[in-house]
Amino acid sequence: MKNISLLIAFLLLSLNTFAQKFELGKVSVDELKETSHKTDPSAPAAILYKKGFTRFDFNNSGDWIIVTDVEVRVKIYTKEGYSYANVEVPYYTKGMDKEEVVFTDAVTYNLDGNKIEKTKLKNEGEFKEDYTVNWHIKKITLPAVKEGSVIEYHYQIRSPFKRSIPTWYFQGKLPINNIKYTVKIPQYFIYNRILSPYIPIKEEEDTSKETKVFSSSNTKGGYGRKSSVLKNEVGTVTYYEIEKTYSTENVPALQDEHYVDNIENYLSFVKHELSKTHFPNQQEKKYASDWDAIVKTIYNDENFGRELDEKDYFEDDIKTLINETNTTRGELITTIYNYVRDRMAFNEQYRYECVDGVKKAYESKTGNVAEINLMLVAMLRYAGLNANPVLLSTRANGHVSFVNRTEFNYVVAGLESQNGIMFLDATSKNGVPGLLPIRALNVTGRVIRENLSSAQVLVTPVINSVENTVVMANLNSNGSIDGQIRVQYFDYNAYVFREAYLNVNQDNYLSGLEKKLGNAIVSDYKLTNDKEYDKPIIEGFSFQNNAGADVIGDKIYLSPMLFYTMKENPFKQEKRAYPVDFIYPRQDRYNISITIPDGYEVESLPESATVAMDGNICTFRFNIAQRGNQIQMVINNDINVGRLNPEYYSDLKSFFNDVFVKQNEKIVLKKV
Fold first, then answer.
1. C-alpha pair distances (Å), 4 with each of 156, 167, 184, 439
2. How many helices (H) and strands (E) does the chain have?
3. Average pLDDT, the chain
4. pLDDT per residue as tens digits for the range 504-523
5. pLDDT 10s digits, 645-665
6. Contact criterion met (CB below 8 Å) for 293 and 280
7. Where is the DUF3857 domain (predicted)?
């Protein structure tokens, strides 16, 4: 579970530019006197040094295990940094195989005058929590923490699970002065590696010969040799190890930005996945798979492939349903989709495998994402449609890193045709065919077919979702504005509106709407098509804003787009290392008509203009004209991509800045 492993990201970090001399217990007076971080003065805490070391060893049974030691020193600057004295380390258990986590050398240092005081962690400061059946968390709370404290701790993870080495993160929520990670891998284990590129990492490599003593009370020795005679075996193993060291310093805290899918996708890390093993006198054994092998494994899983073959539980109901409706392809899809969506309740459990099974879920009318959407695939196939499951990783779960089924945590239905693939997800009560919930829009997925073939598919929407706003406004001589507004929401805009609006009290929604409209007063509110999912949602209302324009002397200054005017450019950083995620393409249309007050005339209007990025990735069209005592505007703001690579960031930032400037130009009226 990647979400579990990401808990480690903000724990495994450490410090100090004198990294080579770092030792636990050697806290200096200067470190304790430091009142703010040198490069990030607003940071509530900082990691002064972090060091990790992963190696292979034998356990008492003579089996290989992975041992990871972590040493951390953290400086606490403010009360907001106290939470970093609460340390959590996840660990995994499966049957008789268990990871072990042991904390040692956990100490808080404070300064009393020029004297350093040490407070050690006591037993009551250590806890264990069961997160799931298989995942658990070891926790410590360091004592005597206050502003200015320095805390240190060491922990060791001993793991029998050799399929992956613990992911090491080089960046997190706090600035890091110095960080170093070393991994030593015996020649018998070959791992695939991914090194995230978002910050520069120094790499060093060395090869050394290692001799280890092992003992085993099993008939199978840890070195891979079988013995039918010895009940206890003791011996030595000599082999070569590949040692890799990664280090960097002065790492800034990872800052969230506007339009980011999941900021944790852009942590710098090194990951390893076991590719194969090759022990002396044994055949090579492969672990990492290609997609053909992955698909075969998934389809043979009784909690996945076999669930798609079940049909007796729904057959009579679907026969009746199909016979009662027209049977064009589109009608058939919508009928079956709506039936599953309306019947089933989603229990909020994300996984691509069934737990209770589709039959039980159908009977209870409740299921996880796999039970609901595999049921949908089975029904669509029963109706003669080319439906297949599509594996996804949700936005919260992160991007897929390896060719590995454990990277996925979600499944939807895919209908393939000559026109491409239509995605369906019946877990959302506001869903429609062809529209996935926002949580599932995570760049790519993998469709897996009955013939055991598979293909990567893009799930980012490509069609613009429209929001159409019509404003009929009256400007008064005191600067107040009143009138009527009508807004139509299409496609994803309608879905997002339904998800937000239908889950809140109307009074709370109207309060938020009034704030959005510059603290206006909203009345006569009406909502249309809120439950007709194949139609755009329409909201209409009257408004009154007592501070809609600025009256200065005999002139009135007014923003053409009124309360829809952009307040700031959301893109502020000079550079950006990761993609801009708009989630889906969109078009915002505004048709605004403003009647000017009696006794005033137009002194000046902003000029009509078009702002565009190369290739029309984003466009802004502003048209304005006076018709008698009315000022009329037609404005289109198009973002024609759901996701934009970082090489376009500079142009995107300039585009938004030009749009901001244009929207903030003023209409000027003067008294006649």
1. 17, 11, 24, 18
2. 11, 37
3. 90
4. 888 999 999 999 999 999 99
5. 999 999 999 999 999 999 999
6. no
7. 69-192
95 phi and psi angles, rounded to 5 deg: 60, -125
Q: How far is CA 359 from the centre of its chain?
A: 32
pLDDT digits (tens, 9 = 90+) for 125-163: 899 999 878 889 999 999 999 999 999 999 999 999 998
Nearest to 478 by CA among 567, 375, 599: 599
Terminal alpha carbon distance of the chain: 70
122 vs 648: CA distance, rounded Å: 53
**pLDDT score at 100:** 95
Structure tokens at 7: 């808990």
Any idea of the CA torsion for 105, 108, 112, 116, to the nearest 10 degrees?
20
**Residue 100 burial by CB count (10 A; 0-12/13-18/19+): exposed, middle or buried?**
middle
Residue 93 has a CB neighbour count (10 Å cut-off) of: 16
Q: Which residues contact 277 (CB under 8 A, 6 or more apart)?
A: 188, 189, 190, 284, 285, 287
Per DSSP bridges, beta strands 164-169 and 86-94 are unpaired
Tell me 664's DSSP state.
Answer: T
Provide the 10 A C-beta neighbour count for residue 275: 15
Identify whether the C-beta of residue 172 lies closer than 8 Å to the C-beta of residue 154: no
Secondary structure letter of residue 514 according to DSSP: H
| β 521-528/126-130 pair status | unpaired
Phi, psi of 566 (to 5 degrees): -65, 130
User: What is the Rg, in whole angstroms, of the alpha carbon atoms belonging to the chain?
Assistant: 31
Which helix H or strand E contains 137, and what residues bound it?
strand 135-141
- Residues found in the chain: 672
**Residue 569 DSSP label:** -
C-alpha 425/C-alpha 380 separation (Å) is 13
Tell me which amino acid residue 550 is: D
Describe the chain by its helix, strand, coil percentages, rounded to 5: 20, 40, 40
Amino acid present at 485: I
Report the candidate in 306, 295, 196, 299 with the shortest Cα–Cα distance to residue 251. Answer: 196
CA dist., res. 270 & res. 618, Å (int):
35
Which residue segments constitute the domains of the chain, with CATH numbers given?
A: 2-211+237-285 (2.60.40.3140), 293-458 (3.10.620.30), 465-671 (2.60.120.1130)
How many other C-beta atoms can be found within 10 angstroms of the C-beta atom of residue 573? Answer: 11
Sign of CA pseudo-dihedral 486, 490, 495, 496: negative
The pair of three-digit structure tokens given for residue 404, joined into one six-digit string: 């590995």
- Give residue 30's identity as a one-letter amino acid code: D
**Residue 14 pLDDT class (50, 70, 90 cuts):** very low
The pair phi, psi for residue 372, each rounded to 5°, is -75, -45
Please state, in angstroms and rounded to a whole number, the distance separating the CA atoms of residues 206 and 208.
7
Residue 133: other Cβ atoms inside 10 A? 8
Give the span between the Cα atoms of 87 and 254, in whole angstroms.
19
Grouping H, G, I as helix, E, B as strand and the rest as coil, residue 533 is coil
